[in-house]
Predict the structure of tRNA N6-adenosine threonylcarbamoyltransferase.
Amino acid sequence: MSEYILGIETSCDETAVAIVKGGTEIVSNVVASQIESHKRFGGVVPEIASRHHVEQITVVIEEALAKAEMTIAEMDAIAVTEGPGLVGALLVGVNAAKALAFAHQKPLIGVHHIAGHIYANRLVEEFEFPLLALVVSGGHTELIVMKEHGKFEIIGETRDDAAGEAYDKVARTLKLPYPGGPKIDELAHIGAQRIDFPRAWLEDSFDFSFSGLKSAVINTLHNASQKGIEYKHEDIAASFQASVVDVLVEKTYRAAIENNVKQVIVAGGVAANKGLRKAMETKFKEERMNVMFPPLSLCTDNAAMIASAGYIAYKQGHRSGWDLNANPGLDL
Ligand code: KG4
Ligand code: ZN
């Protein structure tokens, strides 16, 4: 129960390293964000991301070990995000993990980024199966049923944009800085739902679609400016957020009932959304069911979640070979 796993995450724009004890106890958790470098481009620039990871990775590994007052020799395994994500960014983490594991002859464990997001919740509370996870991030929107540790059944996914991607694109249209999700969330709180944006229910399916909603927001703003009407940004944000949240909450609820789950968890960057957290809590409370979110710092990309998922893989006997490679399209 007291194995120490060193986790490494570099799939997008955070260089992150963490040490987790026994799969659930964070010993250290360091995240070096590159947001400031990508902001002026309005999104993540893959080349810049890779370069920053190369510059940061050794520093962040050393910082995570220093904060834990531990050495690599004391680690039981090295876990790393092998995919999905930006290939150049993933490669930096994978190569660092391989070098560390090889030099110190430690087991190497490749982790799926989404498994990591889900296991961020296990740093807070023990899982109860069957479990339903709603994963909402910049690259993913998925409903996943887990009947046991390490096994994931995707029952619904986005057919176009991810929820976070829709937030970021709408934010860009409103000329808000990257990443737009948190900004829209803030604005939504002071705005009113004046516009009835569409909700893609995709009846009889747990799939999602957000590109129609994104286009509706863009068209509404375009038509308004042609007619000389001006909408307040906060009202656009509130109306857009209501559309996203309604669909996420309702579909998650239906999936929870249909799959008779014991626990519902929400994961990924958009799980930090205040409107979503509140609406989920209200809906599930009404139905006398529990819904769980990671603390805000564990919603967005971090390495503690990779170490937590890596611990389960380690206990289940999974080991990656020295030929482990970055896989941008890795299946869950
Ligand atoms: O999980 P994450 O850090 O990276 C991916 O794996 O994609 O998620 C980042 C996404 C971005 O799209 C960001 O705008 C969104 O999460 N996000 C939010 C909030 N905080 C982050 N979206 C809505 N509301 C928030 N409070
Ligand atoms: Zn992520």
